C-alpha cells in the first residue's frame, strides 16, 4: 500500500486498496479464534417451566443478581441483541465480496452467539424479568442504532466506511471491558466464565477493526484522522437508545463496571497509542487540524475524569463514615 495524501480515492477504491489488510486480518482471526457452544455455559439444571406450561412465573425474589449486575446484564444483552442494526451498517459500508464479505458473515455469526448464551443464562437462572427483557428487546431493536455521528453537512459519505470501522474499533474494546467486569459483578463463577468467553471474542473483533483502521491511516491519513476525531468526540455505546439506558448506565458506572475513567484509560487511549496518532508525520493540513481538535477534546475529557474520580471518592468516604 502507498500513502495517497492529496489524491482522491472513492469508497470502493479504499475497500480495494485495503483488501490485502482485510485478507491478512481474516487469516489471523481464523487462526486465533476458538469455536465454542452457548449451551455449554448455561446451568440447565436450574431451569423450570413458567406459568404457561404449568410452572411459576418470574418474581424478583428468584434472582440472585444485585441491582448493578442486573443492569449490566440487561444492557450488555440488549446491546448484543441489536445485532441486525450493526450488521446492516457493516454490510452497507463493506463489500460482500471477497474477504470483506466473509468477515461480515463470520463476525455476525460470532456476535449472535453472545446474545444466545446471555439470554439462555438469564432465563434459566431467572436472573431478570423475562417479560420486561423481551419488551425492551422489541423496543430497542425496533428503534435500531446507527453508530455514525450526525452529518454536519460537510462529511464525505464516500468515506462512511472509515467512520464505521473506527467506531467498532473502540466499541468492541469497550464491550470487552464491560463484559469482563459484569462477569465479576454477577458473583457466579458460571456467569464469570461465560462472559470471559464472550469478552475474548470481542477482543479479537477489536483487533480486526483496529488493524483495518491502521491500514486506512497509511492510505488516507487525513480522512482517517477526520473519522477518528468524529467518533471519539461523539462516542456513544450502542445501548444508548434502549429504554432505561441512563438509569442503568449510572448503576454500571457506580458499580465500577464501565465508567468514564475506564473509557478513557482502557479503551480510547490504548487504541490511539496503537495508531500512533500523536507521533505520525504523514498528515496534511486537514489531518493536522483534526489531530489538534482531538488533543483539545482529550484535555477536556481529562478534566471530566478528574472530577468524576473526585466525586466518587467523596461518595465512598461518605459511605465509609456511615459504616463506621
TrEMBL record:
Binds 2 iron ions per subunit. Keywords: Fatty acid biosynthesis, Fatty acid metabolism, Iron, Lipid biosynthesis, Lipid metabolism, Metal-binding, Oxidoreductase. Gene3D superfamilies: Ribonucleotide Reductase, subunit A. Its cofactor is Fe cation; Fe(2+). InterPro entries: Fatty_acid_desaturase-2, Ferritin-like_SF, RNR-like. One of its GO terms (cellular component) is cytosol. Fe cation 1 binds at residues 80, 111, 114, 202. Pfam families: FA_desaturase_2 (PF03405). Signal peptide: none annotated. Fe cation 2 binds at residues 111, 172, 202, 205. One of its GO terms (biological process) is fatty acid biosynthetic process. The keyword Oxidoreductase applies. One of its GO terms (molecular function) is metal ion binding. Homodimer. PANTHER family: ACYL- ACYL-CARRIER-PROTEIN DESATURASE-RELATED, STEAROYL-[ACYL-CARRIER-PROTEIN] 9-DESATURASE 7, CHLOROPLASTIC. Belongs to the fatty acid desaturase type 2 family. This is Acyl-ACP desaturase.
Amino acid at each position: 500500500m502507498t500513502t495517497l495524501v492529496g489524491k482522491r480515492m472513492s469508497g470502493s477504491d479504499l475497500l480495494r486498496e485495503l483488501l490485502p489488510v482485510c485478507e491478512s486480518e481474516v487469516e489471523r482471526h481464523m487462526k486465533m479464534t476458538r469455536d465454542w457452544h452457548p449451551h455449554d455455559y448455561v446451568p440447565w439444571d436450574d431451569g423450570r417451566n413458567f406459568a404457561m406450561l404449568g410452572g411459576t412465573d418470574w418474581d424478583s425474589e428468584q434472582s440472585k443478581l444485585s441491582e448493578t449486575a442486573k443492569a449490566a446484564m440487561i444492557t450488555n444483552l440488549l446491546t448484543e441483541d441489536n445485532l441486525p442494526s450493526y450488521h446492516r451498517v457493516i454490510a452497507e459500508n463493506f463489500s460482500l465480496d471477497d474477504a470483506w464479505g466473509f468477515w461480515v458473515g463470520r463476525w455476525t455469526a460470532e456476535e449472535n452467539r453472545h446474545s444466545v448464551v446471555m439470554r439462555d443464562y438469564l432465563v434459566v437462572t431467572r436472573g431478570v424479568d423475562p417479560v420486561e427483557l423481551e419488551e425492551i428487546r422489541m423496543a430497542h431493536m425496533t428503534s435500531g442504532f446507527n453508530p455514525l455521528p450526525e452529518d454536519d453537512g460537510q462529511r464525505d459519505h464516500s468515506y462512511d466506511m472509515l467512520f464505521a470501522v473506527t467506531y467498532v474499533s473502540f466499541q468492541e474494546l469497550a464491550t470487552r471491558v464491560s463484559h469482563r467486569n459484569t462477569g465479576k459483578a454477577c458473583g457466579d463463577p458460571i456467569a464469570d466464565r461465560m462472559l470471559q468467553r464472550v469478552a475474548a471474542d470481542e477482543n479479537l473483533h477489536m483487533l480486526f477493526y483496529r488493524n483495518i483502521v491502521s491500514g486506512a491511516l497509511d492510505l488516507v491519513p487525513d480522512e482517517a484522522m477526520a473519522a477518528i476525531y468524529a467518533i471519539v468526540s461523539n462516542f456513544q455505546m450502542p445501548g444508548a437508545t434502549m429504554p432505561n439506558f441512563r438509569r442503568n448506565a449510572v448503576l454500571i458506572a457506580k458499580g465500577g463496571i464501565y465508567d468514564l475513567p475506564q473509557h478513557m484509560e482502557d479503551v480510547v487511549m490504548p487504541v490511539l497509542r496503537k495508531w500512533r496518532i500523536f507521533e505520525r508525520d504523514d498528515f496534511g493540513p486537514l489531518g493536522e487540524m483534526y489531530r489538534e481538535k482531538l488533543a483539545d477534546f482529550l484535555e477536556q475529557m481529562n478534566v471530566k475524569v478528574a472530577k468524576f474520580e473526585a466525586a466518587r471518592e467523596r461518595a465512598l468516604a461518605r459511605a465509609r463514615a456511615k459504616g463506621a
